[in-house]
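Inputs:
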Amino acid sequence: KQKQQVISRFFAPK
Amino acid sequence: MLELRLVQGSLLKKVLESVKDLVNDANFDCSATGFSLQAMDSSHVALVALLLRSEGFEHYRCDRNLSMGMNLNNMAKMLKCAGNDDIVTIKADDGGDTVTFMFESPTQDKIADFEMKLMDIDSEHLGIPEAEFQAIVRMPSAEFARICKDLSSIGDTVVISVTKEGVKFSTRGDIGTANIVCRQNTTVDKPEDATVIEMQEPVSLTFALRYMNSFTKATPLSNQVTISLSSELPVVVEYKVAEMGYIRFYLAPKLEE
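Outputs:
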């Protein structure tokens, strides 16, 4: 089973 | 006041074709640096970053920083009305609620202007730190597009693995499995046919093919694509936009549970 990660997990708001 | 004149108007047409299915609405930011966009897809799994540097425009006037919210599908509809050889000029007034796209034929015998309504879009910019990548693969963009298309007929995800042997694209689905290995190849007649693999460390990551296939809509922009990989980071799929900038797609990896 694979879980799709989201971008906000890696990049924070400026 | 903003006035940007792009002699190679087809570049803007191609840029819109490559992002309109991934992102619905986005703010185009205009500053002294250039014309740029950063936006996520609706499920926040992918992010697109576009930069067209001001030096790449024949004329670039941007009196103050301006952010213009546009529906990318509507913008693409308007740009589709420009001929491939047309010069495209983007015009907007400070504080206005419309943007005008002007198309001039190369011989100046046909001039069209299309005015589009702008929209208010709440969007936050994400900070994308400079990263050291474990592996960077540069390969013909058409080859990468072909691989993504072929694999998506077998499975939903692609495992991209870079080792000393080369870069391997793998998938599995109900009907079976597929593995495509591309080796470094620099002994080519044309530099755009080369495959170059810079590996610091072996890396293997899993991605949704649906997004990868969407990114390959940028293939007409550039003969080469650069895929930058690091474990625990989104992959970066980059297409250069002529000499003036780039379009980068970031895709969050899938995690084994």
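Remarks. Chain B has a mean pLDDT of 97. Chain B has four helices and 19 strands.
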